[in-house]
Amino acid sequence: MTEDPYRSVCGWGRAGPSAGERPFCETFGLFRLAVIAQQIYHRYHHKQTRNPAFRNLWSAVDHLEHPCRSTIRRASGG
Q1: What does the pLDDT profile of the chain (78 residues) look like in tens digits?
Q2: In terms of DSSP H, where are the helices of 1-78?
Q3: Which residues neighbour 42 within 8 Å (Cβ) at sequence distance 6 or greater?
Q4: 62: buried, middle or exposed (CB in 10 Å: 19+, 13-18, 0-12)?
């Protein structure tokens, strides 16, 4: 059995988040990943690391931004 991702990201126990809290957890989790990717790319861009695997990491930030905005829009009723 796989673990519910909302429980691991937001730290809830067996009950998990309510339906109203899930959009927050989803957005928070994606935003957290986007920030990590952005920090790594920033280091690559400023030549603090030279690993070519990080060259296009900025696109991961863009790809993570879209679902964050969509979830926020859905949760706010817009």
Answers
A1: 456 555 565 665 666 667 777 888 889 999 999 999 999 999 999 999 999 999 999 999 999 999 999 988 988 886
A2: 5-10, 22-45, 57-75
A3: none
A4: exposed
Q: To 5 degrees, how large is the angle CA 29–CA 59–CA 52?
A: 110
Rg (CA), the chain: 15
Residue 66 contacts residue 21 (beta carbons within 8 Å): no
Q: What is the pTM of this model?
A: 0.71
**At residue 47, what are phi and psi to the nearest 5 degrees?**
60, 30
Instruction: Give Cα 65 to chain centroid, integer Å.
Output: 8
